[in-house]
Amino acid sequence: MLNAVIGLTLFEWAWRNTSRVRNPNKELNKIYFMFERADAKYWARWKFYPGAVSILLPILILLFLCFVLETFTVRIVLIGHDRNKAVSGCRNIFLRFSKRCFVFMISTILFTTISYSELQVSYENWLGSEVDQIV
After folding, report:
1. CA gap 53, 51 in Å, rounded
2. Which of 103, 118, 122, 135 has the smallest C-beta neighbourhood within 10 Å, fewest atoms?
3. Separation CA 8–CA 51 (nearest Å)
4. What is the pLDDT of residues 83-96, one digit of tens each?
């Protein structure tokens, strides 16, 4: 019962705070059309109630625990690391693995699929080749 009351209270608070998104300023959307939420007109309060009263609070608790776990993991891996240097070697490998596990946990809790890829960016046009750079 407490789960339902807290979930419903949190949902109503979030619903009230999204009124600007649900009732957009048409003139402003003409100027900044790329930020318009096209799906907001399909939102209905009654569609959110089942999730709010049943699983909202456990999901929030699990997400909080995931963030705490990831924070402790990163802090433990970075013990003794110089903040002025880039992370490399075993620490880098472990942090990448930890990030992938964290993304998997969050996507599992939220019942979504998250895909990402790491971009390889080259700044040689602006900075010159690596041989020219002074480290």
Report:
1. 6
2. 135
3. 9
4. 888 888 899 999 99
